[in-house]
Amino acid sequence: MNKKKFNFEEFSNYLSIIEKDSKKTFIKSENCTVCWRSWGEGQPLILLHGGYGSWAHWIKQAIPFSKKYKVLIPDMPGFGESDDLPLPHTPEKIASNIADTLPELISNDASPIICGFSFGGLIAGHLSYTLIQRGTRPEKLILIGPGGLGAKRGEIRNMIARHSKMTEEEIYNAHKINLEILMMYDAKKVDDWSVHIQKQNTDAHRIKSRPISATDTLAKILKKQDVPLFLLWGEKDASVGVYLEDRMAILREVNNKVRFHVEYNLGHWIMYENEIIFNKILESFIQD
Predict the structure, then answer these.
(1) Domain 22-287, CATH 3.40.50.1820 — does that match?
(2) C-alpha to C-alpha distance for 77 and 102, rounded to whole angstroms
(3) Phi, psi values for residue 175, rounded to 5°
(4) Most buried pick, 13, 73, 100, 265, via CB within 10 A?
(5) Measuring CA to CA, which residue among 62, 44, 148 is closest to residue 98?
(6) Burial class (CB in 10 A: 0-12, 13-18, 19+), 18
(7) What is the pTM of this model?
(8) Cα distance between residue 82 and residue 235, in whole Å
(9) What does the alpha-carbon distance between residue 175 and residue 4 come to, in Å, rounded to a whole number?
């Protein structure tokens, strides 16, 4: 067994390096208070994290993209440092509460770029639609391995559940193995930072995202809008498995101008597993 221990002080210092130049803002929405972090100036680039996640899913993008854009990353309602939402938890409610807070961060005519990862991709589709209904039209919508398309989920090995009787070493190894199973294809890329992020994120989440991701809610909301749509998957995304073409077919049906990119030998959390490749792809989508 790996005898790694969590070094919370070192991890907190690392996060502080990324956060120190950000503006951290708590903004009241209809149902809760949403925690935002922002870096840089320019066209707004909104980055939404995945399920069991937080802003730290984008830890390798915040600073690089702030050199050209106003990077805005929330802890979505029910995650991280944002408040809980009252039940029932729906993508419409999550998106609406995020949208409530945006007028304090961007102007009505700002034409933001919205990018969402996994469960955040599903919410990104709903946020885009909500903003259009409120008079703010996104320039484009970029989805990274999104749920909510109604396609079959890939065959995934059973992940390890954590419980209160586990030792610190057992918890570390559970998170490490789970990251190897679901989030990254190259096990060597599952480093201490990703394990720390995973533990912090899973400890803080209060919304069960997977039942929502298993529906076709994203496909339905995309049919109602014509925002330019871009999709990215890692070729080895465990959540997709052999069902990638099924997802592409669904997306072609809802938007016949959708653009796809599949990156060889990368997994689900592509922007952490290989940020150099991912950042180039995201920039190319933004500039397209």
Answers:
(1) yes
(2) 14
(3) -65, -40
(4) 73
(5) 44
(6) middle
(7) 0.96
(8) 32
(9) 12
Mean pLDDT by 10 residues, the chain (288 residues): 60 77 95 98 97 96 97 97 95 98 95 98 98 97 98 94 89 94 97 90 91 97 97 98 98 97 98 98 97
Residue 238's nearest CA partner among 145, 119, 121 is 145
Contact 97, 75 (CB under 8 A): no
- H/E stretch holding 280 reads helix 275-287
Which residue reads 């050199």 in tokens? 67
> Which residue carries 């030792």 as its tokens?
167
Q: What separation in angstroms does the CA of 251 have from each of 120, 187, 198? A: 17, 30, 30
What HEC string does 161-222 produce?
Answer: CCCCCCCHHHHHHHHHHHHHHHHCCCHHHCCHHHHHHHHHHHHHCCCCCHHHHCCCHHHHHH
**Nearest Cα to 233, choosing from 212, 198, 263?**
263
Q: What is the distance between the alpha carbons of residues 10 and 219, in angstroms, rounded to a whole number? A: 41
Tokens for 2? 């790996």
Angle, alpha carbons 255-48-224 (nearest 5°): 25
